[in-house]
C-alpha cells in the first residue's frame, strides 16, 4: 500500500511548505527556542512519509492539518473575545492576520489531502 497524490501541485507545494517550516523551526531551535524541536521532529517525519509515499502519509497530513487549524483557531477566538470586551483591535491586527493565514493554510491542506490523496496497492512491475 502507498499514498497516491492525484494532484502533483498539492504534493510539491506541501513538500515546499513543510520544508520552509522546517527551516524556520530549525532557526528557532538554534536561537534558543527548544519548543521548536517538537515541530522539527514532526516536520521531518512528515517529509519522510511524503517522499516515501508511505501509506500513513494521508493520515499524518490529516492530523497535522487539524493541529494547524486548532492552534490559530483558538488564538483567533481569544483575540475576538478580547476585542468584544473592549481591547483595541489595532494592537492585534498583525497577529490576527497571521493566525487567519495559518488557519487558512491548514484548511486548504486538510481539504486537498481529503480530496486528492488516496491509498492504493503498490504497482509491482
Structural summary, described in words:
By secondary structure, the protein is mainly α. About 75% of the residues lie in helices and about 5% in strands. It has a two-stranded antiparallel ribbon with strand order 1-2. Helix 1 packs antiparallel against helix 2 (about 35-50) and helix 3 packs antiparallel against helix 4 (about 95-115). The longest helix is centred in the middle third of the chain and has 28 residues, at about 55-85. The chain is globular, with a radius of gyration of 17 Å.
Task: Give helix and strand order, one letter per element, not per position.
Answer: EHHHHE
The protein's oligomeric status is single chain
Structural class: mainly alpha
CA gyration radius, whole angstroms: 17 Å
Uncertain spans, ≥5 residues at pLDDT below 50? Answer: none
Strand order of the largest sheet: 1-2
How many H/I helical runs? 4
Give the termini separation: 14 Å
- Note the main sheet: 2 strands, antiparallel
How much is the average pLDDT?
90
Shape: globular
Keywords: Membrane, Transmembrane, Transmembrane helix
Question: Brief description of this entry?
Answer:
The chain crosses the membrane at residues 9-27, 33-51, 63-81, 93-112. Keywords: Membrane, Transmembrane, Transmembrane helix. The chain has 125 residues and is mainly α.
Amino acid at each position: 500500500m502507498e499514498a497516491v497524490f492525484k494532484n502533483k501541485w498539492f504534493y510539491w507545494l506541501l513538500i515546499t511548505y513543510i520544508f520552509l517550516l522546517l527551516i524556520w523551526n530549525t532557526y528557532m531551535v538554534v536561537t534558543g527556542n527548544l519548543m521548536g524541536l517538537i515541530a522539527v521532529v514532526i516536520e521531518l517525519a512528515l517529509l519522510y512519509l511524503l517522499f516515501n509515499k508511505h501509506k500513513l502519509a494521508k493520515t499524518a497530513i490529516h492530523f497535522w492539518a487539524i493541529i494547524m487549524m486548532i492552534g490559530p483557531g483558538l488564538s483567533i477566538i481569544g483575540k475576538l473575545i478580547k476585542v468584544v470586551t473592549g481591547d483595541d483591535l489595532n494592537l492585534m491586527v498583525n497577529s490576527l492576520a497571521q493566525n487567519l493565514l495559518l488557519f487558512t493554510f491548514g484548511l486548504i491542506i486538510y481539504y486537498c489531502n481529503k480530496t486528492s490523496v488516496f491509498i492504493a496497492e503498490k504497482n509491482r512491475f
